[in-house]
Amino acid sequence: MVRSTIPVNALELHRKLIVADGHCDTILKIARGETELNKYSGSGHIDLVRMQEGGVRVQFFAAFIESMFKPFSSLTRAMQLIDTFYSEAEACSHMLAVGLSMSQVHRELRCGKIVAVLGIEGGEVLNGDISVLRVLFRLGVRFLGLTWNQRNQIADGVQESITGGGLTQFGCAVVKEMNRLGMIIDLSHISEAGFWDVLKTSCCPVMVSHANCYSLCNHPRNLNDDQIKALARNNGIMGLSFVPQFIGGNDRAIDDFLDHVDYVAALAGTGVIALGSDFDGIDHTAAGLADCRCYPAITAGLLERGYTEKEIRGIMGNNILSLMENILKQ
Fold first, then answer.
1. How far is CA 204 from the centre of its chain?
2. Which helix or strand (DSSP H or E) is residue 109 part of?
3. Is the pLDDT confidence value at 330 over 80?
4. Taking a C-beta distance cutoff of 8 angstroms, is the pair 93, 111 a contact?
5. Is the dihedral angle over the CA atoms 291, 294, 295, 301 positive or is it negative?
6. pTM of the model as a whole
7. Maximum distance among all Cα pairs of the chain, rounded to whole angstroms
8. Which of 26, 41, 94, 114 has the least CB density, counted as fewest CB within 10 Å?
9. What is the rounded CA–CA span in Å between residue 291 and residue 72?
């Protein structure tokens, strides 16, 4: 069901929420000249105009390194995307601030700004050198997806699961250094063996920024029940994604997405649930989840399904903020 109108009580609640999205690929689309952040863009899923309409207050921006740049030009491409991010952030500084620490994040939210958190999707950016991680941190990178689908120096990606490979020795060092620096570890796209290795190695909670439930949709990028429960025990978060193939079809309605919320809530509680749209990283969107204006409809759906205001606040954004509080240095 696509909701054309939002009940008044849902809109009133939504206006009080801090909506946080744990993953988008908008930086890449901007770098390619396909969209802009500072004005409405009909070609993309995210811009400041629509973020305001949807009530988005915190957005994680992942710099995705395309396969053509791997492995030898990964760092160069990352620098180009980071430059794109900061150029766009400067142009949008009247409404948007880059989030570097939680004290600053809280300050910018109180001032009414949208907070942009910068990360990189793909640990090949490090070129096997831990010093690059420290430099990226100094450049404002606050989360890192250890792998994409392929293998790299850190771990095997989900497409390499047949090998049974997990975290390498270098990968263990990366995890420990990210813990020390105060960087969020993103386990989206990692092999299952790598997932478990990281949870054994990390002394901090982790996130899976964009994935759904394998039990409802058996896509290899989705998490099985044991992984979801382990994330909850770890005080981590699972950003439920809007990717139609992860939800369960090529054109499924918002209620099918909410089925994944219900499933995780029953399995592991609502404290592990977050949002991880993957906007601007998907060509085809699910019905009711077309762009970042969809969030009031999700709030309405959660109310309809009986979630409390506290639970809705957590799912829509506070759970991500709690993870950030646990990891980002003050």
1. 17
2. helix 102-110
3. no
4. no
5. negative
6. 0.96
7. 54
8. 94
9. 34
State the helix-helix crossing angle for 192-201 and 225-233, rounded to 10 degrees: 20
* Cα 246 to Cα 199: distance, rounded to the nearest angstrom: 23
- Reading the block at residue 240, the tokens are 């439920």
DSSP-assigned letters across all residues of 20-67: EE--B-HHHHHHTTS--SSS--TTSS--HHHHHHHTEEEEEEEEE--G
What is the residue whose two structure tokens read 């620096």?
A: 181
Tokens 């008044």 label which residue? 8
Q: How many CA atoms lie within 13 A of 136 on its CB side?
A: 35
| Token reading at 162 | 């047949």
> What are the structural domains, with CATH classification, of the chain?
15-327 (3.20.20.140)
Whether the Cβ atoms of residue 253 and residue 1 lie closer than 8 Å to each other: yes
Residue range 36-71, pLDDT digits in tens: 999 887 789 999 999 999 999 999 999 999 999 988
DSSP codes of every residue in 125-153: GGTT-HHHHHHHHHTTEEEEES--SS--S
Token output for 17: 């929420």
- Give the tens place of pLDDT for each residue, 272-316: 999 999 999 998 899 899 999 999 999 999 999 999 999 999 999
